[in-house]
Design a protein that fits this description.
With 223 residues, the chain is mainly β. It has helices spanning 65-70, 162-167, 185-195, 206-211; strands at residues 9-16, 22-28, 41-44, 47-55, 58-64, 81-86, 105-115, 118-124, 138-141, 144-151, 155-160, 178-183. A hairpin with a 3-residue loop joins strand 10 (144-151) and strand 11. The longest helix has 11 residues, at 185-195.
Length: 223
């Protein structure tokens, strides 16, 4: 399933089973029935989950052991407010960026600093994900598509505008809070391709170009 990272609404956890291998959550919200059909996908705090039961203004989802281990849902409590987005349908407007709902890791809020009506929001990024975020690139935090303003050695800074603060749960986050992170899926696949890269017999290399008579093939820019 695909999402946009444009949070449709927020919901409230009204019941949550305990356990380390599986948990079931009941969530109240104002999503319409068409978005909550049995088997439908809903992005819950950045995590793609399947609707297993639904009634007017309420739905239930299950989170299994891997989801509980890799996301904040293992610590989700009754009363928590979470960001919600139904899956993207063919023909829907595409805002934000492509989001899979497959969380790459959990980050930690480093600082929250008011800047007029906006907020300077710093997130510490897990070490394996740091090469996959870039200034002016996209990142999904708790299901919210955001633009990275600045990158430093251990994290990123996001500028949260008043609208985002009002319609998502990010306005409630404080230093030390854990948040679900999903990097731009393009960065994820580029990193994997580079990891698996080998020089196959048909690849064009610098040595091949030099042997063919091309000069200054190692020099960048126009010749």
């Amino acid at each position: 399933m695909v999402f946009t990272g444009l949070v449709r609404t927020t919901g409230r956890v009204v019941s949550a089973s305990s356990g380390t291998q599986a948990r079931r959550f009941a969530i109240t919200c104002d999503l319409v029935a068409a978005d909550l059909e049995l088997g439908a996908s809903v992005c819950c705090a950045g995590v793609c989950l399947t609707v297993v039961a639904a009634a007017a203004g309420r739905f239930e989802v299950d989170a299994a052991f891997e989801t509980l281990r890799c996301t904040t849902l293992g610590a989700l409590e009754v009363g928590a407010r979470i960001n919600l987005e139904p899956s993207l349908r063919v023909g829907d407007a595409m805002g934000g960026h492509f989001v899979s709902g497959h969380v790459d890791g959990v980050g930690s809020v480093r600082s929250v600093t008011p800047r007029g009506e906006a907020v300077e929001f710093w997130i510490e990024i897990p070490v394996p994900l740091r090469p996959l975020v870039a200034a002016k690139g996209s990142i999904c935090i708790d299901g919210t598509s955001l633009t990275v303003n600045t990158v430093d050695a251990i994290g990123v800074m996001i500028g949260l505008v008043p609208h985002t603060l009002a319609v998502t749960t990010l306005g409630e986050r404080r230093a030390g809070d854990a948040v679900n992170l999903e990097v731009d899926m393009l960065a994820r696949y580029v990193a994997r391709l580079l990891e698996c890269r080998t020089s196959a017999p048909g690849d064009v290399t610098v040595d091949m170009l030099a042997a063919a008579g091309f000069r200054d093939v190692t020099r960048r820019g126009p010749t």
